[in-house]
């Protein structure tokens, strides 16, 4: 099915063929639609006004301008937009053919008036040649502007092909060929001139002045006057011929080949004057124009009317007003159609095949590599009808992309944009249309995933689509792809996205990950927090949204609220969060959660801050959590740690602890019972009996005073005689020993062990005498030997200890006696001297003086603060005092006088009796006994005082 030109960018007529309107949808679906190769537009500018009063007959294209010939004989020079640049009113009849030279400086035209006119486009030069018969074709030498020969070829109805050249005597015509009917077309390329007449196509080599080939007219083709043959040079050696319904491509081989540096070298004619038909095929339409299209061909096709006549060989549809639209077809050399476009030419219903023509602009430098022309070098095709000129040119990347978009192939369009690095505006347009297509198809997830690729760094585009997705209630699927930088959007866009996630329970997990990943600085937390808090105590409040709310609280600085949520969620990093933000006060209400998260970290925290989190609060919360966790084990751990830190801190719970120890950690029961004083013995005993904790029963019975019952438990239940012996030894009760012996007599092994532990406790003979006859005691001999050995060792140790004790007593008594004999001198001089020597001695001496002053004399003569000689109070006389350990004190002067007087008497008596004086020095005092003696420098009084004796005691003793 042919495509209408309106599909390619030109507004077509309002008329539509009835057959096309009745095509079924099934036929359209079965037909594979090909992308057009060309795009079309009507030539604007001055063309419409020029053709309103005239009709176009032919066109020629140069690199810089276009020449349009009319039925009125005018030649219009136009720019590529269709604006008239110059006009030559050269002919009086229809212009049949136009030709530019290679430089585009001259334009040649021929007309039915029999003239050929060559005009210079940039000067006033104008040449006119009269041939007196209608001229149908003209071709200028490509080098016309550069050569002085000014050659051109022309031909017409007279049947002669003229080669006109400027000689030294003027312009001369040379007939190259004649006698085979009118000349219908002529084309000149390099030195090769190709023309068509009634017989066929011939090629002449102007460089050698020789005709080199002949291509016969296709059989069955219409008469040339009805359908003009079309010939065009594709390159220097390829000649494309379209005649009737036949296409031939001839490869011309001449006697010249390109040499080095672009020069030509000639070789012998015998080898190379040949032509090869490299392609040939028949068409189902008439050829109104033909031109090369890269490796393919562009054919202007005239479709004959369907009047039942299928043989196009001799006739042309003649019915007026019933012609079909001309078509532009792109075909390969094998006649494979690549594209077909129907052209809405004005008045096409009344035109015949010969009324159309096709010209193209193969500019120098054009390239067609890999199916694409270089930018700016694309060929242009001009389709001419009497009242219309249509320009066709290859579709570029943007056209390709637009065509893909029109047909819904958005992904291929995107790939094409990326591959060709198209304009950013084009990329945005493709992206927007692709997204619109996906949204219409309700493929929201796919659309969201493509947004980073399609929207790239456009903040405005991102924001537009964020709000569009929000309007569609599909924003959650876009959130993972929203950029946070490069570009960064407005705060509102991020807040709307987070609120959309918060209000949809299916995306609460995505909300959490988004809050964690997005920088807090790009949005305000208040609207998001409000949206989440409104869902409290509803079924949509999931753990993920709770954690997201906690994260938002942290961002907002509300750490206590965040902690409360983290605690309910029992996050592993809860303790680090507490330490980081110093939230110990907030822990009071979340004890159970902390213990369930990590009791090893929770318990030290609770105990360390027990001044804030009181033990009763901890215990009450754990007791209330009996349905949530193993509250008894957690209570045990907490109370045990609390007891180790402070045994009295949780004393009201010690009864509970006894039971907890029994259930959770029986090994620690006995140390607790020994350390605590705040549990009820009866309750503890009942618990131990129920749990069959024997050692604990023994300890409690011992504390309760039931030593015999405890001993019975040890012997009968534990069967540990050593434990029993140790228990009895600690009780210091002889009756228990009797009970132990009594209960052990019937157990030989226990008797043996008891014998081993009797030394120091019991008399072994006493036990042996109580043993019944015939009782077999294991290892009795060894045990008896041990008993005897231990007894001898104990006896020897006792004797040695007694000897040491006696010696110590004697030595201590002697020391005491010598200390008691010493006197102390109480005087200000002595006190000052002693204080100067040692503060320690002064302090010690002062204490002794004060004790002496307050001491009462426990003798028949009491001092009472008086001198024992003069009986005056010590305070009346400012005289030093001498005190003795016997509690007698004297004035120093009184004691000295009494000593002298008594000494005199004694000396007289001593001479006869041989006794010593009272103030003789005591030579038996050791150095260490001089502890309270003063140095010799302290004065005679003090030194003498240390050797004095109490007169009263000495006299009484005498």
Annotate the secondary structure layout:
Layout: E1 3-4, H1 18-21, H2 25-30, E2 38-42, H3 47-52, E3 56-61, E4 66-70, E5 74-78, E6 84-89, E7 95-100, E8 106-111, E9 115-120, E10 126-130, E11 135-140, E12 152-156, E13 161-167, E14 170-177, E15 185-189, E16 192-196, E17 200-205, E18 210-216, E19 230-233, E20 238-243, E21 246-253, E22 256-258, E23 264-266, H4 269-272, E24 274-282, E25 286-293, E26 296-302, E27 327-331, E28 337-342, E29 357-360, E30 368-369, E31 372-373, E32 381-385, E33 388-394, H5 397-406, H6 410-420, H7 424-440, H8 444-455, H9 459-471, H10 475-478, H11 491-502, H12 508-517, H13 526-533, H14 543-555, H15 559-569, H16 574-581, H17 591-597, H18 599-608, H19 615-624, H20 631-645, H21 654-664, H22 669-675, H23 681-691, H24 694-704, H25 707-718, H26 721-731, H27 734-744, H28 748-756, H29 764-770, H30 780-821, E34 823-826, H31 828-837, H32 839-853, E35 881-884, E36 889-891, H33 892-913, H34 940-945, H35 951-957
Parallel strand pairs: 1-28
Antiparallel strand pairs: 2-33, 3-4, 4-5, 5-6, 7-8, 8-9, 9-10, 11-12, 12-13, 13-14, 15-16, 16-17, 17-18, 19-20, 20-21, 21-24, 22-23, 25-26, 26-27, 27-28, 29-32, 30-31, 32-33, 34-35, 35-36
Helix pairs in contact: 5-6, 5-7, 6-7, 7-8, 9-11, 11-13, 12-14, 13-14, 14-15, 15-16, 17-18, 18-20, 19-20, 20-21, 21-23, 22-24, 23-24, 24-25, 25-26, 25-27, 26-27, 31-32
Region (Disordered): 1-39, 905-944
Protein name: Vacuolar protein sorting-associated protein 41 homolog
Keywords: Protein transport, Repeat, Transport, WD repeat
Concise overview:
The chain has 958 residues and is α+β, with helices and mostly antiparallel strands. It contains 35 helices and 36 strands.
């Amino acid at each position: 099915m042919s495509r209408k030109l309106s599909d390619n960018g030109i507004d077509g007529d309002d008329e539509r063929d009835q057959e096309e309107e009745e095509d079924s949808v099934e036929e359209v679906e079965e037909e594979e639609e090909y992308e057009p190769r060309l795009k079309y537009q009507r030539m604007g500018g001055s063309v419409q006004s020029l053709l309103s009063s005239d009709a176009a007959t032919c066109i020629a294209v140069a690199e810089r301008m276009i020449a349009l010939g009319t039925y009125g004989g005018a030649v219009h020079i136009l720019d590529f937009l269709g604006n008239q640049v110059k006009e030559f009113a050269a002919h009086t009849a229809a212009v049949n053919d136009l030709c530019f030279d290679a430089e585009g400086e001259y334009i040649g035209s021929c007309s039915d008036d029999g003239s050929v006119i060559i005009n210079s486009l940039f000067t006033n030069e104008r040449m006119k040649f009269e041939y007196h018969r209608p001229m149908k074709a003209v071709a200028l030498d490509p080098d016309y502007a550069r050569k002085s020969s000014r050659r051109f070829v022309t031909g017409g109805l007279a049947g002669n092909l003229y080669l006109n050249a400027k000689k030294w005597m003027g312009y001369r015509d040379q007939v190259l060929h004649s006698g085979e009917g009118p000349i219908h077309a002529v084309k000149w390329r390099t030195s090769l001139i190709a023309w068509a007449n009634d017989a066929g196509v011939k090629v002449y080599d102007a460089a050698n002045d020789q005709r080199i080939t002949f291509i016969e007219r296709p059989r069955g083709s219409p008469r040339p006057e009805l359908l003009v043959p079309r010939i065009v040079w594709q390159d220097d050696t390829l000649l494309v011929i379209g005649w009737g319904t036949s296409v031939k491509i001839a490869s011309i081989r001449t006697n010249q080949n390109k040499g080095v540096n672009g020069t030509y070298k000639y070789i012998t004619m015998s080898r190379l004057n040949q032509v090869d038909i490299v392609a040939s095929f028949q068409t189902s339409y008439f050829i109104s124009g033909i031109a090369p299209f890269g490796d393919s061909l562009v054919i202007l096709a005239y479709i004959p009317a369907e009047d039942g006549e299928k043989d196009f060989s001799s006739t042309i549809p003649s019915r007026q007003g019933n012609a079909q639209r001309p078509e532009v077809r792109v075909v390969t050399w094998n006649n494979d159609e690549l594209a077909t476009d129907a052209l809405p030419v004005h008045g096409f219903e009344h035109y015949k095949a010969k009324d159309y023509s096709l010209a193209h602009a193969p500019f120098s430098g054009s390239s067609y590599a890999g199916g694409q022309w270089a930018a700016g070098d694309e060929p242009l095709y001009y389709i001419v009808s009497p009242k219309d000129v249509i320009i066709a040119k290859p579709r570029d990347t943007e056209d390709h992309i637009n065509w893909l978009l029109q047909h819904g192939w958005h992904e291929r369009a995107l790939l094409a944009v990326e591959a060709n690095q198209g304009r950013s505006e084009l990329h945005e347009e493709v992206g927007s249309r692709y997204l619109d297509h996906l949204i219409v198809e309700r493929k929201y997830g796919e659309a969201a995933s493509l947004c980073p690729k399609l929207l790239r760094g456009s903040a405005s585009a991102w924001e537009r689509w964020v709000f569009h997705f929000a309007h569609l209630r599909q924003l959650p699927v876009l959130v993972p792809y929203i950029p946070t930088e490069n570009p960064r959007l407005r705060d509102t866009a991020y807040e709307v996205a987070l609120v959309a996630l918060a209000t949809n329970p299916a995306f609460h997990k995505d909300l959490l990950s988004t809050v964690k990943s997005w920088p807090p600085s790009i949005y305000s937390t208040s609207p998001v927090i409000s949206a989440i808090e409104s869902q409290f105590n509803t079924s949509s409040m999931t753990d993920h949204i709770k954690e997201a709310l906690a994260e938002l609280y942290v961002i907002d600085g509300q750490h206590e609220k965040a902690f409360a949520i983290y605690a309910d969620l029992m996050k592993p990093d809860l303790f680090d969060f507490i330490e980081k933000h110093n939230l110990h006060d907030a822990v009071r209400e979340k004890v159970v959660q902390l213990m369930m998260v990590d009791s090893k970290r929770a318990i030290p925290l609770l105990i360390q801050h027990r001044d804030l989190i009181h033990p009763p609060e901890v215990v009450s919360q754990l007791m209330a959590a009996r349905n949530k966790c193993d509250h008894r084990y957690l209570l045990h751990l907490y109370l045990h740690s609390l007891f180790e830190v402070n045994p009295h801190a949780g004393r009201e719970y010690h009864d509970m602890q006894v039971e907890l120890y029994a259930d959770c950690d029986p090994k620690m029961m006995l140390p607790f019972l020994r350390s605590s004083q705040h549990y009820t013995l009866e309750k503890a005993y009942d618990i131990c009996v129920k749990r069959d904790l024997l050692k604990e029963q023994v300890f409690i019975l011992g504390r309760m005073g039931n030593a015999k019952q405890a001993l019975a438990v040890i012997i009968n239940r534990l069967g540990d005689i050593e434990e029993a012996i140790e228990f009895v030894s600690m009780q210091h009760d002889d009756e228990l020993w009797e009970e132990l012996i009594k209960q052990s007599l019937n157990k030989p092994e226990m008797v043996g062990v008891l014998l081993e532990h009797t030394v120091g406790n019991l008399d072994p003979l006493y036990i042996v005498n109580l043993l019944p006859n015939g009782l077999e005691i294991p290892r009795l001999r060894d045990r008896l030997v041990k008993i005897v050995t231990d007894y001898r060792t104990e006896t020897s140790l006792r004797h040695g200890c007694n000897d040491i004790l006696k010696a110590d007593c004697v030595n201590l008594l002697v020391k005491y006696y010598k200390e008691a004999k010493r006197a102390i001198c109480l005087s200000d001089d002595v006190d000052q001297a002693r204080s100067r020597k040692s503060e320690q001695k002064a302090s010690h001496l002062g204490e002794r003086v004060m004790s002496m002053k307050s001491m009462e004399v426990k003798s028949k003569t009491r001092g009472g603060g008086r001198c024992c000689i003069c009986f005056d109070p010590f305070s009346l006389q400012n005289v030093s005092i001498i005190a003795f350990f016997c509690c007698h004190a004297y004035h120093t002067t009184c004691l000295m006088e009494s000593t002298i007087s008594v000494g005199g008497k004694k000396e007289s008596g001593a001479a006869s009796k041989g006794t010593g004086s009272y103030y003789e020095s005591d030579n038996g005092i050791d150095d260490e006994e001089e502890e309270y003696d003063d140095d010799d420098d302290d004065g005679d009084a003090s030194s003498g005082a240390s050797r004095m004796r109490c007169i009263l005691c000495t006299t009484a003793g005498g």
